[in-house]
């Protein structure tokens, strides 16, 4: 089951070329967002207690989604990383899921 | 010497713990805070919540979030107390004042930039509710053309 998900993600990666410019979200496509969510929505503080905010960056497996797929900018990816590890300590988010 | 810093303390109690136990722990922490001349800002009880993974055979936990202003020694003492309390299955202390300050600065900077740009374009500094939201900073060159037309009307 997890194998077929992985495949899907790989396919998306291919057309993830131009970073800026094409930021018009065409329909609700599956992980095609190239613009940093936190920049776009002007979220200044990534709260570790807000599971709903963090959950789009945690795929099935429980790992942190890489930047090249989510499109998060470097600055916010760093902040996200901290927030996720804090949330994990508090068992709000799993470390791993099999 | 002892500087005032804002901390956020989150602790998770066992699912079996009663409301009285939670209240008791809360007053205990409050006493420590008072003893160290700290201030208690806010407390938030999330109630029972499912844990993302099992901690010591528990699948659920009672979450409590407290915001405390005080010194590092105060937090050290609270941390020590929580460590030895049996009903606590997990706790986390985070210093938040710096992070919130940064967030506040970013917000005010963005507001100032917005106001500056808008006055330069001859618009009122605050966006009107009728105006479209979601214009991004990096797309301003594009938006200029569009919004300029709007302003003319």
Account of the protein in words:
The complex is a heterodimer of chains A (98) and B (153). Chain A starts with a helix and ends in a 9-residue tail after the last helix. Chain A contains five helices and no strands. Chain A has a domain at 34-98: Ribosomal protein S18 (30s Ribosomal Protein S18, Irregular), CATH 4.10.640.10. The longest helix of chain A is centred in the C-terminal third of the chain and has 16 residues, at 74-89. Helices cover 42% and strands 0% of the residues of chain A. Chain A is mainly alpha-helical. Chain B is α+β, with helices and mostly antiparallel strands and 153 residues long. Chain B has a domain at 5-99: Ribosomal protein S6/Translation elongation factor EF1B (Alpha-Beta Plaits), CATH 3.30.70. Chain B has four helices and four strands. Chain B has helices at 19-35, 72-84, 97-120, 140-152, and strands spanning 5-13, 39-55, 58-70, 88-95. The longest helix of chain B has 24 residues, at 97-120. Chain B is elongated and about 65 Å long. The model of chain B is unreliable at 136-153 (pLDDT under 50). Classes of the chains: A mainly alpha (98), B alpha+beta (153). Chains A and B meet through α5 of A and β2, β3, β4 and α3 of B.
Give the SSE layout.
The complex is a heterodimer of chains A (98) and B (153).
Chain A: H1 2-14, H2 37-40, H3 51-54, H4 67-70, H5 74-89
Chain B: E1 5-13, H1 19-35, E2 39-55, E3 58-70, H2 72-84, E4 88-95, H3 97-120, H4 140-152
Antiparallel strand pairs in B: 1-3, 1-4, 2-3
């Amino acid at each position: 089951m997890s194998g077929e998900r992985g495949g899907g993600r790989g396919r998306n990666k291919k057309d993830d070329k131009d970073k800026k410019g094409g930021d018009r979200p065409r329909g609700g496509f599956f992980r095609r967002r190239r613009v940093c969510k936190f920049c776009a929505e002007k979220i200044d503080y990534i709260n570790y207690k807000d599971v709903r905010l963090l959950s789009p960056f945690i795929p099935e497996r429980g790992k942190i989604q890489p930047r090249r797929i989510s499109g998060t900018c470097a600055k916010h990816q760093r902040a996200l990383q901290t927030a996720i590890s804090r949330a994990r300590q508090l068992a709000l988010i799993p470390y791993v899921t099999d | 010497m002892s500087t005032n810093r804002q901390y956020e303390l989150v602790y998770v109690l066992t699912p079996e713990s009663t409301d009285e136990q939670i209240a008791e722990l809360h007053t205990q922490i409050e006493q420590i805070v008072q003893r160290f001349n700290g201030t208690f800002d806010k407390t938030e009880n999330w109630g029972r919540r499912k844990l993302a993974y099992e901690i010591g055979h528990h699948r659920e936990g009672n979450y409590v979030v407290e915001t405390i202003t005080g010194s590092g020694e105060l937090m050290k003492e609270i941390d020590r107390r929580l460590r030895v309390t049996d009903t606590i299955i997990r706790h986390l202390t985070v210093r938040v004042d710096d992070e919130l300050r940064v967030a506040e600065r970013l917000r005010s900077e963005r507001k100032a930039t917005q106001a500056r740009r808008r006055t330069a374009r001859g618009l009122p500094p605050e966006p009107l509710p009728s105006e479209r939201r979601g214009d991004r900073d990096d797309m301003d060159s594009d938006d200029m053309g569009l919004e300029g037309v709007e302003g003319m009307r």
